[in-house]
Amino acid sequence: MNRFEEYKDIWVFAEQRDGKLANVALELIGEGRRLSRDMERNTKVYAILAGTQEDVDSLAKECFEYGADGVISLQHPLLKQYTTDAYTKALTELIIQRKPEIVIYGATHIGRDLAPRIAARVNTGLTADCTHLDVNLDKYVDYANKNTTLDTSKIDPASDDGGLKMTRPAFGGNLMATIICPNTRPQMSTVRPGVMQRLERDPQADGEVEVVVPQLEEKDIRVKVLEVIKSAKEMVSLTDADIICSGGRGLGGPEGFELMRRFAEKTGGVVGASRAAVDSGWIDHSHQVGQTGTTVKPKIYFACGISGAIQHLAGMQTSDIIVAINKDPDAPIFTVADFGIVGDLYKVVPTIINLWDDAEELYETDLRRQ
Amino acid sequence: MAYKVIVCAKQVPDTNVIRIDPKTGTLIRQGVPSILNPDDANALEGALTLKDRYPGSTVTVVTMGPPQAKDILIEAIAMGADKGVLLTDRAVGGSDTWATSNALAGVIQYLGNFDILIGGRQAIDGDTAQVGPQIAEKLGIPQVTYVEGLEIEEDGRTVLAKRQLEDGYETVEVALPCMLTCVKELNEPRYMTYAGIFDEEMDEKIITLSATDVNLDPAIVGLKASPTNVFRSFTPKPKGRGIMLDGSDEKELATRLLVNLKAKHVI
Question: For a Cys staple, B101 with which of A237, B120, B135, B162, CB 3.0–4.6 Å?
């Protein structure tokens, strides 16, 4: 008999702000479905919503459409805004009562505030910022063989206990570690936004919503939110972008991002930045790509004047196509680039912008020439 | 008003200078300097700023690690901290975040009352950001994470903090005592002073404690007590070099690039 028999199902914390689901919530529902297929005992994926009735009522359908088998909706006026105290209390009580086998959260500023607090209260393990999850050991070995330098010959397939294998970067992306939580339940992790795949939306999907009203009082909430300010700065959604035009130290100054903005405008992309450029104060940190910024995987990543520090590479090397433009032919960025151009970005990028609309024609001409 | 401020800090390898051996695919740790974790330096600066503003306040820096972790306490005192406390013991080695927070909460309880606990958002070796909130939970105090602005209100017992969000910030209010974890936007850490580096009382200002000194329950600290274990660790596979484009001028280079992107059906 399984000593964790009582623990069942996968829970996804379906983070919402102002009645809008976070993208990562939908990605995690998709990942939960993928994991559940490798689990026994008819494992189901539940989306856990938390908020006021007004804010979360309309979100349950969306969770079903993206693959949730069930929705538990925590509703209370005191869940209007995210607070550590109220959310920790509501979720912890539900976890202790219902005993999920796995709980995953988005590694957002909310998820990374909430999950450790819950883990400490429930006294279970928590793995931060995961980029890959597996329950099946054979699938883990396949993943490791394909993407890592791990010697998998020493892993005994018969040793699989069906536990969650949570893989994450450490040491600034220099090292990857797979973490397990063998002796306590639930197994919990936060997962980096933009890494997991959401499922195709099924507009027909629907299901049963269970509404739970947690016991909350004003005095439970010790940190009072006075105001929430959305910055006037442009919204950057690096994780959703198909094309990212990213600039680094090689831009030479803040004015370089003017060129990046023109580049992004022409290509329909968004502007990204390396840590060096952000630390120099040339652009806001919300544009930062890399280990301490956002992980991205656009269709095309243009790295302009970015040398390719390991932290940066960790955040963008799973992009479909990487184009590197740099003066220094020895820049590490070229080791991950699909296409490299050694040259002055201030000459190369404007030329790409000028020729962008002619790409089809240039391609046809090139085909005829061959 | 005067405040007792405790700073949680960690000594970390400078991950910016870690390189991978291209032949073996392993980390080259040799020659990698150990430093005060950058976010923790901001936490210390935040504490020292409070001390400057509220004379009579004290700043104690707490860390856990091998004996050489004492170096960051020396650095902190040279910047202006009053006291450094090092918990060093094999019994706490290999702790995950849950066990680490139990150990540090134990040290903090041993030290007695405090008003403000402050630490960096996360350490650059683990990047978990979990220990701060977990210490707060173990001590039963409220937390504010991602702090990028910090003041004490007129009543002297309430912190007004600016908490960074992905798309802006929120202003929050919390009564003391509380735990704050801060980001680099909070401030610019000061330098060590000459007088601080050559502080004659340096030795007296640093206390080294063992697990038994602070009465830690062996069942909740160390490798064995940790709920999470490392199953495997490895280096990512390098993606491999692609095509370097050639051309006599920018126009030719840009054309080659666009033709290639078209051929890959990505534009």
Answer: B135
